[in-house]
Amino acid sequence: MSAKAFDLIVIGAGPGGYVAAIRAAQLGLKVVIVERENLGGICLNWGCIPTKAMLRSSEVFHLMHRAKEFGLGAENITYDLDAVVKRSRGVAKQLSSGIGHLMKKNKITVVMGGATIPAKGRVTVKTDKGTEELSAPNIVLATGARARELPGLEADGDLVWSYRHALVPPHMPKKLLVIGSGAIGIEFASFYNTLGADTTVVEVMDRILPVEDEEIASFARKSFQKQGMTILEKSTVKQLDRAKGSVTAHIETGGKVEKMTFDTVISAVGIVGNTEGLGLEALGVTIDRTHVVTDAYCRTGVEGLYAIGDIAGAPWLAHKASHEGVMVAELIAGGHPHPVKPESIAGCTYCHPQIASVGLTEAKAKAAGHDVKVGRFPFIGNGKAIALGEAEGMIKTVFDAKTGELLGAHMVGTEVTELIQGYVIGRTLETTEEDLMNTVFPHPTLSEMMHESVLDAYGRALHF
Ligand SMILES: Cc1cc2nc3c(=O)[nH]c(=O)nc-3n(C[C@H](O)[C@H](O)[C@H](O)COP(=O)(O)OP(=O)(O)OC[C@H]3O[C@@H](n4cnc5c(N)ncnc54)[C@H](O)[C@@H]3O)c2cc1C
């Protein structure tokens, strides 16, 4: 069978792959994208978007319980889990079909099926109707990742859930154990806890949200505990005994094992890259702990083969995947793009209160040898936060004391996932404390706290 020829084959239509395809098409390349499941990948179908839709429901539910505070009345506040999930699936579907329109608009050929790479420049796709052969001088691998399964803690969809099950739950958990307190674990813990599940979070590291600044993680922990969550840090789930309708977890803390019984467990212990079955080893691609090893330009070392997004390693974030997609498309089209700088990629967690950060934590900045100046500003000192009834939170900034470089920014509180971009732009433009201090922030906004945090690092905070 003769292969259909293209300039670029993209494998995987998540935020890495579909964005790479669009940018390449904009630059005049003839592009085909291959997807085995849903356009939009994990992000739109089983990740970023449906979780945010569900979290919005729990946020509104939480606010309805606070109606009185705002001079409003709301009686008999209830939820219908099926309707919450239906809304979330509807949002995911709307966005996934939007990607179909974008492919059409940009004249990108879409082939639905599983891809393998039998040789350099060749891709075989198993579709519903048979096999399709494709060829191109360039291939972008954007096959993403899936939930990591630990032995004994494997998801079964009934008592033990992966993130996919937790997005289409077969029942509402009454007593829930969440294993792992990264962004995914904490978001589900926040959602189910707000809806009334008695939630316990177990984290093996010395604190929840282990990649976040210690002070922010500790602030978040206190807030979650106030909301009724049980948080077990430096603890490991050693074993799950599954019975009919319940799971007994053996949880080790400081050498002591305690048995606790739950009706539902969510395993959120990380992800592994989708590297198998593609033929990568035969091509000579280096794989390290389930991720394809690349250089700063996402080149795999095999001519014409690039890897972007989750399959290419941390940070496992949609915006990192998309940015790499644009960069690689421009490179393939003959441009001279800048490599993606991981240290300027913000991480956001949409729990209640939200967490957002970019750059170095205070501890990492010190460990890297920086003499630091640290600023902090609490939400209670901000007029807009008080007006919103959201006075819980803080913004922390870390500067290099010698140069004034903004090394990192860390936030916890309402809508901080929208605020963080201000500091991301600051870091991208390599602003110093002086630029930030001389910036006029609109009033009344939550963003004023970003200004105050910078001022505080230099002993000049005005409202606290
Ligand atoms: C519950 C959850 C919540 C998340 N929330 C956020 C968030 O709020 N913000 C954020 O930035 N990130 C979030 N993420 C992470 C985000 O979803 C990923 O970083 C992002 O989807 C990675 O994009 P990607 O294009 O690399 O891969 P994916 O989105 O994983 O897409 C890869 C695609 O490749 C396809 N594929 C795989 N193998 C083949 C093959 N052989 N042939 C054809 N197709 C193939 C898959 O079907 C998939 O559609 C979340 C993840 C989860 C699980």
Classified by CATH, the class of the largest domain is Alpha Beta
The major β-sheet equals: 5 strands, parallel
Ions, cofactors and other ligands present here are: flavin-adenine dinucleotide
Name of the CATH superfamily of the largest domain = FAD/NAD(P)-binding domain
The value of Rg in angstroms is 23 Å
Mean pLDDT: 97
Percent in strands: 25-35%
Which fold name fills CATH's third level, the topology of the largest domain? Answer: FAD/NAD(P)-binding domain
Overall 3D geometry?
A: globular
Structural class determined from secondary elements: alpha/beta
The beta-strand count equals: 26
N-C termini distance: 72 Å
Overall CATH architecture of the largest domain: 3-Layer(bba) Sandwich
Helix content: 25-40%
Count up the helices. 14
Return the domain count.
3
Give the strand order, joined by hyphens, for the main sheet: 4-3-2-8-21
Notes on the structure:
With 464 residues, this protein is an alpha/beta fold. It starts with a strand and ends in a 7-residue tail after the last helix. It contains 14 helices and 26 strands. It is globular, with a radius of gyration of 23 Å. It folds into three domains: 214 residues, FAD/NAD(P)-binding domain, CATH 3.50.50.60; 110 residues, FAD/NAD(P)-binding domain (3-Layer(bba) Sandwich), CATH 3.50.50; 105 residues, FAD/NAD-linked reductase, C-terminal dimerisation domain (Enolase-like, domain 1), CATH 3.30.390. It has a five-stranded parallel sheet, covered by helices on one side. The chain has a five-stranded parallel sheet with strand order 10-17-11-12-13. Strands 22-23-26-25-24 form a five-stranded antiparallel sheet, sandwiched between helices. The longest helix is centred in the first third of the chain and has 25 residues. The site of flavin-adenine dinucleotide (FAD) has 36 residues, from strand 3, helix 2, helix 3, strand 5 and helix 9. The site of flavin-adenine dinucleotide has 36 residues, from strand 3, helix 2, helix 3, strand 5 and helix 9.
